[in-house]
């Protein structure tokens, strides 16, 4: 399977991946995949119905309850997951091209931030698994206790359109290592890469039913979340969708992990090297999947003494970013994923103007792009933290500049948000940066840069989510713990 070079080469799948087989869907509805760069249909897949979800959950349930996968030695599961990782690495260019075709990520970003980041998530999980102890004997208050890690069960993995491979790898890699089985519901905007992953999983030797792939809309997704055969829902997406999932899952006390939105702050201190900070901020905003990233540094907090300098430098940097064809290796900012998403971003730009913020650069649609769903990289100045553009997640190439007078005010502004996902501090004094980092209520933060390290736990405070992904902490989220109290004279062998 190869990504098309033109819309004429339609990628069409007529089946779903259920119980280790390419299976006819129960209905006739289809999902059309539309290129955000051209507005033309480039792919077509079946639209999974609630009945299809039932079949997929039943297959995953049988594979977990009666199949070999959860009962294999950990080393055997690691071997199979390693084969999946290696195949993803081998087919990384194919994966990158597919993602760019579907969601418009600039191809250079798709290679690093989409395809290879998924491979890296598998690698860090495998590294954590190598240190894993599934059974540990401890001395309890009344005698020895055996603490056991058991796989959590059937996982519904629901992934978004912006970074479909990374967000899926963050769930699939640890869950498979743990011994879980999966029903994967990719976003209807980006289902094609999930088909490639299903193909890779089948070739790697996963038993039937361990991984099932059913593209669908929210209605079928809601049916999956509410299914009594699901033991955990692992979701990445918006806060409203996360709240709905949590409410639905509560009916069955289904476990949930939720990686949700962000409105992250980059603090530029009075002693910062602005020339060094600007590329990091650009990389963490407009150049991060065209601003369609939950970790984006969309609030830039600047000491009043450096405000004009930063405003000028950042405006100039934004104005130089190449916006255009995501297949062009020179492109830094591609299109928004849908026309609806572009209109949402443009509406927020209008709201910002109405609130009294000043557009320093951008603020509309590029004049030279008459097809596709593009938005100019936009920098707002004169923003206060009570404005909607400073409080609500826009999910596009829109950044707010906010003045502050001292460190305490900067920390207060950074923490004055319903979100707490990412952030950055720029300063000439790393110890000073660390002191501030310890005061900011956010799940990840970089001193003098912008980095998401897939070997470390990732997740959010407040409305940015529940739980952590990546590394040992991400792996822990796919286990239940069983404690077995042993007779005092007993010594187990394991």
UniProtKB/TrEMBL annotation:
The keyword Iron-sulfur does not apply. GO terms for molecular function: aldehyde dehydrogenase (NAD+) activity. It is an enzyme of class 1 (oxidoreductase). Its EC number is 1.2.1.3. The keyword Transport does not apply. InterPro entries: Ald_DH/histidinol_DH, Ald_DH_C, Ald_DH_CS_CYS, Ald_DH_CS_GLU, Ald_DH_N, Aldehyde_DH_dom. It catalyses: an aldehyde + NAD(+) + H2O = a carboxylate + NADH + 2 H(+). It comes from the Bacteria. Residues 22-484 form the Aldehyde dehydrogenase domain. The active site is at residue 259. CDD domains: ALDH_AldA-Rv0768. Keywords: Oxidoreductase. Belongs to the aldehyde dehydrogenase family. This is aldehyde dehydrogenase (NAD(+)).
């Amino acid at each position: 399977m190869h990504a098309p070079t033109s819309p004429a080469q339609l990628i069409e799948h007529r089946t779903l991946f259920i119980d280790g087989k390419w299976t006819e869907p129960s209905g006739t509805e289809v999902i059309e995949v539309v290129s955000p760069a051209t507005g033309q249909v480039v792919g077509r897949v079946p639209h999974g119905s609630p009945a299809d979800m039932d079949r997929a959950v039943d297959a995953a349930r049988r594979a977990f309850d009666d199949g070999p996968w959860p009962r294999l030695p950990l080393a055997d599961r690691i071997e199979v997951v390693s084969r999946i990782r290696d195949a993803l690495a081998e087919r990384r260019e194919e994966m990158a091209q597919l993602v760019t075709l579907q969601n418009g990520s600039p191809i250079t970003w798709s290679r690093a931030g989409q395809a290879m980041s998924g491979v890296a998530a598998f690698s860090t999980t495998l590294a954590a698994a190598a240190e894993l102890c599934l059974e540990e004997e401890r001395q309890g208050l009344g005698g020895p206790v055996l603490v056991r890690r058991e796989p959590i069960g059937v996982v519904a993995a629901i992934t978004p359109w912006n970074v479909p491979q990374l967000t899926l790898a963050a769930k699939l890699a640890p869950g498979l290592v743990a011994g879980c089985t999966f029903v994967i519901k990719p976003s209807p905007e980006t289902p094609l890469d999930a088909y490639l992953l299903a193909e890779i999983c089948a070739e790697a030797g996963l038993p039937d039913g361990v991984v099932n792939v059913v593209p669908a809309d929210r209605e079928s997704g809601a049916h999956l979340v509410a299914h009594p055969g699901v033991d955990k829902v692992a979701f990445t997406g918006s806060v409203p969708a996360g709240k709905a999932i949590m409410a639905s899952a509560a009916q069955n006390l289904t476990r949930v992990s939720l990686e949700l939105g962000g409105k992250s702050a980059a603090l530029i201190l009075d002693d910062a090297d602005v020339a060094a900070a600007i590329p990091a901020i650009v990389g963490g905003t407009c150049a991060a999947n065209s601003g369609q990233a939950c970790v984006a540094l969309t609030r830039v907090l600047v000491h009043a003494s450096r405000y004009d300098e930063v405003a000028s430098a950042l405006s100039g940097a934004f104005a130089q970013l190449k916006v255009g064809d995501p297949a062009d290796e020179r492109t830094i900012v591609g299109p928004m994923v849908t026309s609806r998403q572009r209109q949402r971003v443009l509406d927020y730009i209008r709201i910002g103007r109405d609130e009294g913020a000043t557009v320093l650069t951008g603020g509309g649609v590029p004049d030279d792009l008459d097809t596709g769903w593009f938005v100019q990289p936009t920098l707002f100045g004169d923003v206060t933290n009570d404005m909607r553009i400073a409080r609500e997640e826009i999910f596009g190439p829109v950044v707010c500049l906010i003045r502050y007078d001292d460190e305490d005010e900067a920390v207060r502004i950074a923490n004055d948000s319903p979100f707490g996902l990412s952030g950055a501090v720029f300063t000439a004094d790393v110890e000073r940066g660390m002191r501030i980092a310890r005061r900011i209520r956010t799940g990840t933060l970089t001193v003098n840069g912008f980095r998401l390290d897939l070997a470390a736990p990732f997740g959010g405070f407040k409305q940015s989510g529940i739980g952590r992904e990546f590394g040992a902490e991400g792996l822990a989220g796919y286990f239940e713990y069983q404690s077995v109290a042993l007779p005092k004279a007993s010594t187990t062998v394991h």
